[in-house]
Amino acid sequence: MATEVSEVAVTTLSGVGPQIEKHLQRLGITTVSDILFHLPLRYENRNRHLSLGSVRAGDVVTIIGKIDLAQVVFGRRRSLVCRMSDGTGSLTIRLFHFNKRQQQGFERGRWISCYGEVRIGRSGKEMIHPEYKISSQPIQPPAGESLTAVYPTTQGLGQPGFRRLVKGALSYVGQLSDLLPDGDDLPFGTLSEAVRFVHAPPLDADLVALTTGDHPAQQRLAIEELLAHHLSFKKIRQRRENRGAPSLSTQGTMLAALRTEFDFSLTAAQERVINEVMENLNSQKPTLRLVQGDVGSGKTVIAAAAAAQAVESGYQVAIMAPTELLAEQHLLAFRSWFRPLGIEVAWLTGRLPASERKGGIQGLSQGSVKLVVGTHALFQQEVVFLNLGLVVVDEQHRFGVGQRLALVAKGWSSGLSPHQLTMTATPIPRTLAMTFYADLDISSIDELPPGRQRVTTVALPESRRQEVVERVRHACRGGHQAYWVCPLIEESELLLAQSATATEAEIRQAFPELKIGLVHGRMSSAEKEAAMRAFRLGETNLLVATTVIEVGVDVPNASLMIIENAERLGLSQIHQLRGRVGRGTTKASCVMIYRSPLGEQARQRLDTLRSTTDGFVIAEKDLEQRGGGELMGTRQTGHLRMRIADLVRDQQLLSLVEKRGRVIMRDHPEWGNKLIHRWLGEKEQFGAV
Fold first, then answer.
1. Which residues of 99-133 are buried (b: 16+ CB within 10 A; e: fewer)?
2. Which fold has domain 213-451+643-689?
């Protein structure tokens, strides 16, 4: 049986030595199949050949002639200039990047063929850095049977060299086994036919469809890639469920008592999500549920309800937050709810005094501590749980996969796996949820608690910045607090953007009566948290910060958010920042300051933010603008990225992917393993979390 192409090292191809291998590794290419699935950026019809006398500015053509003159010209930029002619006219070739060997190749009287765009320069018609071929013999006009592919490459590996590698790789294409169940709903033909087509489409191929990625041959490859990702997450889920988990089934006595400690009524959305979580916890299959909802939607209450169920069942609960300040906020909430029930909530962070830390760790190992809130300190080696039954991770995308796994693994000693509840204020677009989150259950809190204020959002040009400064002073003098967010820490000569340090100095000078805090990424954790704590306690009126406050704490008195250079930030990022205000009873506002002129995408982003405060709508719009690859960076499961498929463009393929996935898992599980290995290699190693 022939070796699968994903097992054939790229070094088997002719011309791949150590140096080329390094260049290919920068492109993520290590096997022959990696080259086959490295698709062109665009295509060119090199068969269009015109005489030098007939070409015009803007023509993208092949030209052939003889070299009349070649010399290095020194001006503002050193360049190699070659004059060529064909009897009907002449043209200048100009190279700004060249070496000695190239310079020596341009000998007078030799034939040269060039492909590129004709433009008008100082000496008339010219081509800048065309692709060219030089010969001592006359060169015949091109008569190819296919379009010429142009690939994404890297420094040190040009188009001609990469095309030679693709040609070598295509000799292995027959070893690409078809791993999709037969059906009439598949576009194009076999996998190998699709691969051959996308690398060398015929001259009459639909160039528009190829450029947009909508050609059936490209879609055939996209389906297989999407299916590999989908099956990978299904397999992860299956493997996790095979481990088993403790059934946290109770009479619900503690949860009922907990409800009496809330000084608010739960929304219908919160009640629905609590029921979904309880159903999971009653099962002997490990829960991995993501609770998503806008900032202030009440996700912490869901975590508390799950914790009550686990503690009543006799198991321990660990609640982990990315910053000490956010963890402290959870600690205060949990203590106010659980202390009246006779449950003490422990506290574990890196800066805890040694004696307190030792006592907390001892309580966890002996089982006397049932509920602990902390930061990264929770997954350190010396922390041992007696019977960890539930892990809650807030703002889960702020932790690395290995970190979450280290905490979950502390509950494996009994042979069972703890249930996991993760929370995020960044809603996941439905498109991503269907494909990239097939390994977990998702609950959405799509309703804000009564009394939460809708944040009024406006966008103002930088020319009106002084009005915004006065607005901040008015709000602070009225007893309220404000945030002022800047994209940079310090002034930059390269970026025209307002910096946090400059803004803080400017406002401090203009309004010396205001107490101003500063937070940015270069400060130590202790400094940042001290500034945030002072703001939370009302000791400062205004907090000037970079986007590090995107995940922050609850400050009900903060009613105004200013965002500088809003055109530089993404939709979801601005929405998260906006969520820092409007948590009290006072009407809240967000002012987005932008630098003109606005690009079309930036204008669309700001319009979206002005028209809606619905995080789920914004998440879908963000996916449309940025694409799934970038958003998937927050998933952190090995940073699985798409090579061919595009989650926005290929949404219509997802139902087919799910359908084919069910058939493969039921009838051909070995095909699924091969698909995963072909497209993902070993990248599903982080599947345990």
1. eeeeeeebeeebbbbbbbebeeeeeebbbeebbbe
2. Rossmann fold (3.40.50)
Residue whose structure tokens are 């030799």: 110
Quote the CA–CA distance of 471 and 462 in Å, as a whole number.
Answer: 14
Per DSSP, helices labelled H in 480-594 are 500-510, 525-536, 571-578
DSSP string of 467-482, one letter each residue: HHHHHHHHHHHTT-EE
pLDDT tier, 518 (very low <50, low <70, confident <90, very high otherwise) = very high
β-pairing verdict for 441-445 and 288-293: parallel
Question: CA geometry: angle at 363 spanning 358 and 364, to 5°?
Answer: 100
Give the pLDDT band (50/70/90) at residue 2: low
Q: Let me know the angle formed at the C-alpha of 239 by 233 and 242, rounded to the nearest 5 degrees.
A: 140
- How high is the pLDDT of residue 411? 87
**Strands ordered across the beta sheet of 371-374:** 345-348, 371-374, 316-320, 388-394, 419-424, 288-293, 441-445
Q: Report whether 373 contacts 316 (CB < 8 A).
A: no
Whether the CB-CB separation of 640 and 683 falls below 8 Å is answered with yes
pLDDT at 176 exceeding the cut of 80: yes
Under the banding of pLDDT at 50, 70 and 90, the label for residue 498 is low
Residues 381-436 pLDDT 10s? 899 999 999 999 988 666 766 677 788 888 887 778 999 999 988 777 766 666 66
151, pLDDT greater than 50: yes
User: Tens digit of pLDDT for each residue in 231-279?
Assistant: 988 888 888 888 889 999 888 999 999 999 998 899 999 999 999 999 9
Averaged pLDDT for residues 346-369: 92
571-590 pLDDT, tens digit each? 888 998 998 898 877 889 99
Decide if 213-451+643-689 and 456-612 have a common fold.
Answer: yes
**What distance separates the 2 farthest-apart alpha carbons in the chain?**
98
The architecture that CATH gives domain 5-41+158-200 is Orthogonal Bundle (1.10)
Q: Which two tokens stand for residue 564?
A: 């500088």
Mind listing the pLDDT tens digit for each residue in 99-115? Answer: 999 999 999 999 999 99
CATH of 48-143, one of 3.40.50.300, 2.60.40.10, 2.40.50.140, 3.30.540.10: 2.40.50.140
Per-domain boundaries in the chain: 5-41+158-200, 48-143, 213-451+643-689, 456-612
Sheet containing 119-121, strands listed edge to edge, beginning at the edge strand earlier in sequence: 119-121, 124-128, 90-95, 79-85, 60-73, 111-117, 131-135
Q: Which of 554, 644, 595 is nearest to 210 (CA)?
A: 644
**Do strands 371-374 and 316-320 pair parallel, antiparallel, or not at all (unpaired)?**
parallel
What CATH fold (topology level) applies to the domain 456-612?
Rossmann fold (3.40.50)
User: Across all residues in the chain, what is the average pLDDT?
Assistant: 88
Phi, psi of 543 (to 5 degrees): -115, 110
Q: Which two tokens stand for residue 203?
A: 């001259």
Q: Which of 202, 240, 195 is nearest to 220 (CA)?
A: 195
Query: What does the pLDDT read at residue 628?
Result: 54
Q: Model's pTM, two decimal places?
A: 0.73
Strands 42-44 and 148-150: antiparallel
pLDDT for the residue numbered 201: 96
Band of residue 552 on the pLDDT scale cut at 50, 70, 90:
low
- What are the DSSP E strand ranges found in 510-662? 516-519, 542-545, 558-563, 589-594
Q: How far apart are CA 429 and CA 614, in angstroms?
A: 12
pLDDT of residue 687: 45
Contact between 228 and 643 (Cβ < 8 Å) = no
Between CA 242 and CA 599 the distance in angstroms is 51
Residues 6+ apart with CB under 8 A from 448: 267, 294, 296, 297
Q: Would you say 617 and 625 are in contact if contact means Cβ atoms under 8 Å apart?
A: no
